[in-house]
Amino acid sequence: MHVGHIVAAADTRAALGLDRVLMVVAGDPWQKRGLVVASAADRFDMVQAAVEPVAGLEASRIEMEREGPTYT
User: φ and ψ at 45, to 5 degrees?
Assistant: First the structure.
């Protein structure tokens, strides 16, 4: 997660007049299999902390809660 993700999400929310944008954390990122440095729970906490001060952005566990590889 970096500032570019936050800017893109906030700008998209504003441009489309959305109530909220979900920042989905991958549970088992297929492209990083065996190379993941932070656990899904830790990555969720980082995303949640990053979006907390930004109105309309919300961290989501939807991909973390399902089994198998995730593609978000």
Answer: -60, -40
